[in-house]
């Protein structure tokens, strides 16, 4: 990662963190609910989605301040999905980013409600943003509910659970990743561009770009699970090995997975060019997604 | 209930049922997710909230068709809240309206995701309704996310759980009911009036009306638990007795609860008059809420 990209990411991460904490902080709600929502929202890592949204907005000359509330809303939706995915009935995870998961720190009922609260609050935030027109708000809400809802992320989670202990082929693997993680990444790119004032044709190319960005993200995740540094990725390497989940290296071999990532990378760059923003920070972020070490 | 009210409710219930099933039916999503969402959505009872929304819209001369999608969205939010409330970590209920609860019929993970899916889809539906202006959609979405989210229903559920096995006073009891069930009832009335074209001052009076309507609904619920006909209410009478939950009859005695309901009823009627719709179907529905036997 270049020094300028690192500085850019750090600055935007700080903006997102402040917006998130201020949005939750101002709620007059039962204290246990607030603590639980805050606990998971502040446990965030790289803030990839909201930073991507802001970068996309800025690439089209939009104002950062106009994108901030939507980026916080998006991070809340991502956070809700992690809280619910970690529940005992789902992935039954006890630790996330070195801290107890929400239901371990509080209890299951509180975790379910904190997730419900974050999801619902995200629509409150977008519909209340004064720097957006009503038309923009409606489009941003429609796209977010599609990306996160039964046609998007929720479908991906069901398919992911059904795919456990079963061999999936490359097409099935792509479908699950596209729904489960790709939809919110696509939303980040498209929503930012919408706020920034991109034209309709540019949005179509951006959707294609975001599709490949999501896949690059996932291949790299699978690769890091094999040859990553455990101290950097925060979990033991080889944790995908034990279960029967399909991964890119399992399907294509490590070399094949790296080649596949390069194919996706080429397509992502081409789509960015078609979207008229090839020299933007988005290109740097794409390369970073592809070569990140954690 | 008058014959004309019964016919009115039946007609609108049918419209709501059709809209709900068509909205879920058209989703191209994993079959298990769709079945689970459909299962709980079609297990609905009287469809009070969506019918109230339609009645409120019609009271101001609005078109029924313009209110239909928002009324289905509201019923989806209500259904999601029942699915999550029934979960083992929450109320741990096994039967609802004579059928196994969602997590008993499917499994916990599916139930959590079906709830998440219904909640998120509701915002998709409102933002996609062509008979509403962008301004109306934004207001309808803002109000729904406030009513259902951490400031509304989700807060009510947390407080309700915290109030179990603890004596609450009348004020605390009203707060819980206002958040947990009152917010969505208020939404029904206000959203319908907004779609119907009510003026701003009328909306304020309607909010007050809806507040008392919610309390009437709850007092009558508590009264039916003592002197209702088990065959009609679908559960044994006295089921509130065993736990330590506060109810109106426990706090005020049965006679006192009936008097309290009359106080609320008077206030509701006055507010309806101030809202300029005193002769409407809303008045009939109010009386029905107050005297219903199930």
Provide keyphrases for this structure:
magnesium (chains A, B); Farnesyl Diphosphate Synthase; 294 residues; mainly alpha; two-stranded antiparallel ribbon; 2 strands; 74% helix; Polyprenyl_synt_CS (chains A, B); isoprene biosynthesis (chains A, B); 13 helices; homodimer; globular
Distance between the termini of chain A: 12 Å
Strand order, main sheet of chain A: write it out: 1-2
Biggest interface and residues each: A-B, 52 and 52 residues
Oligomer: homodimer
In the CATH scheme, the class of chain A would be Mainly Alpha
Main sheet of chain A, how many strands, which sense, barrel?
2 strands, antiparallel
Low-confidence stretches of chain A: none
Cα Rg of chain A: 18 Å
* Total individual domains of chain A: 1
| Helix/strand order of chain A | HHHHEEHHHHHHHHH
Notes on the structure:
2 copies of one chain form a homodimer. By secondary structure, chain A is mainly alpha-helical. The first copy, chain A, is globular. The longest helix of chain A is centred in the last third of the chain and has 28 residues, at 200-227. Chain A has helices spanning 3-25, 31-42, 48-59, 64-86, 102-105, 108-127, 134-148, 153-163, 170-196, 200-227, 230-233, 248-274, 281-291; strands at 95-96, 99-100. The first copy, chain A, has a two-stranded antiparallel ribbon with strand order 1-2. Chain A has a single domain, classed as Farnesyl Diphosphate Synthase (Orthogonal Bundle). The model of chain A has no long low-confidence stretch (mean pLDDT 92). The first copy, chain A, is built from 13 helices and 2 strands, in the order H-H-H-H-E-E-H-H-H-H-H-H-H-H-H.
């Amino acid at each position: 990662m270049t020094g300028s990209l690192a500085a850019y990411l750090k600055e935007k991460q700080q903006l997102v963190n402040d917006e998130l904490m201020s949005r939750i902080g101002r709620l007059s709600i039962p204290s246990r609910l607030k603590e639980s929502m805050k606990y998971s929202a502040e446990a965030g890592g790289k803030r990839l989605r909201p930073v991507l949204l802001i970068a996309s907005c800025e690439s089209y000359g939009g104002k950062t301040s106009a994108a901030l509330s939507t980026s916080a809303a998006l991070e809340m939706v991502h956070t809700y999905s992690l809280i619910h995915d970690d529940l005992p009935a789902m992935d039954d995870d006890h630790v996330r980013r070195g801290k107890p998961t929400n239901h371990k720190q509080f209890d299951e009922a509180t975790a379910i409600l904190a997730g419900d609260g974050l999801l619902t609050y995200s629509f409150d935030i977008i519909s209340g943003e004064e720097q957006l027109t009503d038309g923009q708000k409606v489009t941003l809400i429609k796209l977010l509910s599609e990306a996160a809802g039964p046609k998007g992320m929720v479908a991906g989670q069901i398919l992911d659970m059904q795919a456990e202990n079963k061999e999936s082929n490359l097409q099935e693997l792509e479908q699950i990743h596209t729904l489960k993680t790709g939809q919110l990444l696509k939303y980040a790119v498209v929503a930012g561009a919408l706020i920034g004032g991109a034209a309709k044709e540019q949005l179509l190319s951006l959707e294609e770009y975001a599709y490949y960005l999501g896949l690059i993200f996932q291949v790299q995740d699978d690769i890091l699970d094999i040859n990553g540094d455990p101290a950097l990725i925060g979990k033991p390497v080889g944790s995908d090995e034990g279960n029967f989940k399909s991964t890119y290296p399992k399907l294509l071999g490590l070399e094949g997975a790296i080649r596949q990532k390069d194919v996706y990378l080429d397509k992502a760059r081409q789509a960015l060019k078609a979207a008229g923003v090839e020299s933007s920070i988005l290109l740097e972020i794409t390369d970073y997604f592809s070569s990140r070490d954690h």
